[in-house]
Design a protein that fits this description.
Pfam family, one: zf-ChsH2
Low-confidence stretches: none
Helix content: under 10%
Strand content: 35-45%
Radius of gyration: 17 Å
Number of domains: 1
InterPro entries: ChsH2_Znr (IPR022002), NA-bd_OB-fold (IPR012340)
Mean pLDDT: 92
Number of strands: 8
Organism: Devosia rhodophyticola
Number of helices: 1
Order of helices and strands: HEEEEEEEE
Distance between the termini: 61 Å
Protein name: Zinc ribbon domain-containing protein
Strand order of the largest sheet: 4-5-6-8-7
Largest sheet: 5 strands, mixed, barrel
Amino acid sequence: MISYELALPYSLEPGWLAPYVEALQKGRAMGRSCSKCGSVSFPPQRRCQCGSGEAQWVRLSGKASVLLRTHGSDGTFGLVQFEGATNKAVTRLEGFASEITDGHLIAPPSDVPALILAPSKSRSTP
């Protein structure tokens, strides 16, 4: 067997997700509102559950409620429901104590887009 290391530099363009990716890098939430049924997806879906592919970009608050959470060697993650969205998302949870259930989207620490939720100071479950 011959070992050979091969480097293939490439860039991955966001394409139709550009508004979502640009907002995410700033800690903001851009969802897609279906033109047919009005469902709002965040993270955005190219095709709505109703089957329509027509949608407009809408700005969401970035606030979310943690529904489920899991802890692992690479961090804490949660299934969350973003305010104004009809779907759910998996996000990294940063700084969440076990009793905290509400958070807001924050900008990732690097240029790589990521869904990261930090605790909200206004509301939590006692």
